[in-house]
Design goal:
There is one protein chain. Mean pLDDT is 85; it is low at 4-13 and 15-21. Strands 3-4-2-5-7 form a five-stranded antiparallel beta sheet. The chain is elongated and about 80 Å long. It is of the alpha+beta class and 207 residues long. The two termini are 41 Å apart. The protein folds into two domains: 22-37 and 135-206, Translation Initiation Factor IF3 (2-Layer Sandwich), CATH 3.30.110; 40-134, Alpha-Beta Plaits, CATH 3.30.70. It has four helices and eight strands.
Length: 207
């Protein structure tokens, strides 16, 4: 029995030494917020007789398009600003049995976007609407700086609660990786337009 205990102790000793050598770390998640002052707006609508209970002869695509054009014109929106099936597969991919068309509308005008969202017509259904922003290097640098400061402040509070001091940064994980790309966010009634959250994970040592 003593020999067995001795052998187990010998086997576990390297692991115990490694555990003692490992320093305590604090991992926190932090974010900073960007409110883009001039986002682009995008809305996607579907036009189809699937959204109407009227007889088929009264809801052909040509009739629906004519009525929708008139409704848009009444709201001072040009039909030429709508793009058909921008992703290659439009209404066919939605799984409805009837014919239909998907249109995409883009604008940088808040008033135009509001008018478009208010436009109603027979056979028209709003699929989604969003704001689109692009983050450049200068904006990314500011977001990084703010998020890192927030991470350090949070980690310092935890270190103080542990009775220790906050040490150096051991690791940073960037959860974004979208600089220079279009970032699309849904528009919500209770959130600012053009809002973007920059997220990072940071690991600090303590001493």
């Amino acid at each position: 029995m003593k020999k067995t205990i001795f052998l187990i102790t010998i086997l576990l000793l390297p692991l115990l030494l490694i555990a003692q050598q490992q320093t305590t770390t604090i991992k926190v998640s932090a974010r900073s917020v960007l409110i883009d002052s001039s986002p682009e707006f995008k809305a996607t609508v579907a036009l189809s007789s699937s959204y109407s209970s009227l007889p088929a002869e009264m809801t052909t695509l040509e009739i629906l398009k004519k009525k929708y054009k008139s409704a848009l014109k009444a709201n001072d929106i040009s039909w030429s600003n709508l793009k058909k099936d921008s992703n290659g597969f439009g209404y066919e991919s939605m799984g409805y049995g009837k014919d239909g068309i998907i249109y995409e509308y883009r604008t940088k005008s808040v008033e135009k976007m509001k008018k478009f969202l208010k436009t109603k017509s027979l056979g028209m259904q709003m699929i989604n609407y969003s704001s689109i922003i692009t983050i450049d290097e200068e904006e990314a640098a500011k977001l990084s700086e703010t998020a890192l400061a927030n991470a350090k402040a949070r980690a310092a509070i935890i270190a103080t609660a542990m009775g220790k001091e906050l040490g150096d940064i051991k690791e940073i994980e960037d959860l974004n990786n979208r600089y220079g790309e279009e970032i699309e966010s849904s528009i919500y009634y209770d959130r600012p337009i053009g809002e973007y959250f920059y997220m990072i994970n940071v690991i600090f040592s303590v001493k």
